[in-house]
From TrEMBL:
<protein>
    <recommendedName>
        <fullName>Tubby-like F-box protein</fullName>
    </recommendedName>
</protein>
<comment type="similarity">
    <text>Belongs to the TUB family.</text>
</comment>
<dbReference type="Pfam" id="PF01167">
    <property type="entry name" value="Tub"/>
</dbReference>
<dbReference type="InterPro" id="IPR018066">
    <property type="entry name" value="Tubby_C_CS"/>
</dbReference>
<dbReference type="InterPro" id="IPR000007">
    <property type="entry name" value="Tubby_C"/>
</dbReference>
<dbReference type="InterPro" id="IPR025659">
    <property type="entry name" value="Tubby-like_C"/>
</dbReference>
<feature type="domain" description="Tubby C-terminal">
    <location>
        <begin position="22"/>
        <end position="305"/>
    </location>
</feature>
Length: 310
């Protein structure tokens, strides 16, 4: 009985964390987090900062494990630090790179837009007076594409990044713009929930299947903010407002790209920033319209060595 109670409490905790990591951040401020890397185990842990310290104890949010394969590299992302595998119930997605580590795809474990893939061995049934929902099978549903380009500044400047956020419309960064949000999870079953609810026909189209060129143009595109040359330090610098203390080619700030349109003040606002503060400690700050899961996956892509781009 005690074990069953513990499992119910644990499931409830996972549900709350799922809600937190999939919800977009606030519009007016950055959510401050940090990532701890363990090079011996090839694991990465994401924490929510609970104070102004660059790396306090924090609240654990997500974990990732790097898996090197013959033709690619996978980062398996879960809600717990142990049993980090795709078959575990706490698996929520992954990041996959090409062989050179220059192109990445972020995959969500659950289908977008309320489309569910159900297990054949389970069906909707009534247990007592409560309905038991069908189990949703974990899959691979692309939600972002990340690419790294040749860095003309070499090791002295940040890498050139280009991120296409497939389910997020480009208008989400404008005043009154809306990003897809997550529905509440059913309390009586942690395996079944609808991932996104779209508030515009544009985002519904982009989530319903593979993107064509026209739909991809309507998705939010993030690019790295251009650094400025510092005469005294004789290097290219970005202003992280004290959140980054160690120079590294991995450091970056991402802003919305106008993609051929007229740039406005919303295209100068930093949506995601990532930087080094210790040997294996990095800060990660994000805001609307991306979520902690999306921000974490993008930051994981920066850990790979990219010889072709530097």
């Amino acid at each position: 009985m005690l074990f069953i109670y513990y499992c119910l409490v644990l499931s409830s905790q996972y549900e709350m964390v799922r809600v937190l990591v999939f919800q977009p951040g606030p519009r007016d401020s950055l959510v401050q987090c940090f990532i701890k890397r363990n090079q011996s185990t090839q694991t990465y842990h994401l924490y929510l900062s609970l104070s102004q310290a660059l790396a306090d104890d924090g609240k654990f949010l997500l974990a990732a494990r790097r898996c090197r394969r013959p033709t690619c590299t996978d980062y398996v992302i879960t809600l717990q630090t142990d049993e980090m595998s795709k078959g575990n119930k706490t698996y929520i997605g992954k990041l996959r790179s090409n062989f050179l580590g220059t192109k990445f795809v972020v995959y969500d474990a659950l289908p977008p837009n309320g489309v569910t893939t159900m297990s054949k061995c389970r069906s909707t049934r009534l247990v007592g007076s409560k309905q038991s929902f069908p189990r949703v099978l974990a899959g691979n549903y692309p939600v972002a594409h990340i690419s790294y380009e040749l860095n003309v500044l070499g090791a002295r400047g940040p890498r050139r990044m280009h991120c296409v956020m497939d389910p997020i419309p480009a208008t989400s960064v404008k005043p009154g713009g809306i990003a897809p949000i997550q529905l509440d999870f059913p309390v009586n079953n942690v395996d079944y929930f609808t991932l996104f609810r779209s508030r515009s026909s544009r985002s519904e189209k982009s989530m319903s299947g593979p993107l064509d060129d026209r739909q991809r143009e309507e998705s939010l595109v993030l690019r790295n903010k251009s650094p400025r040359w510092h005469e005294q330090l004789q290097c290219w610098c970005l202003n992280f407002h004290g959140r980054v203390t160690v120079a590294s080619v991995k450091n970056f700030q991402l802003v919305a790209s106008p993609e051929g349109g007229e740039a406005g003040p919303e295209h100068e606002k930093v949506i995601l920033q990532f930087g080094k503060v210790g040997k294996d400690v990095f800060t990660m700050d994000y805001r609307y319209p991306i979520s902690a899961f999306q921000a974490f996956a993008i930051c994981l892509s920066s850990f790979d060595t990219k010889i072709a781009c530097e």
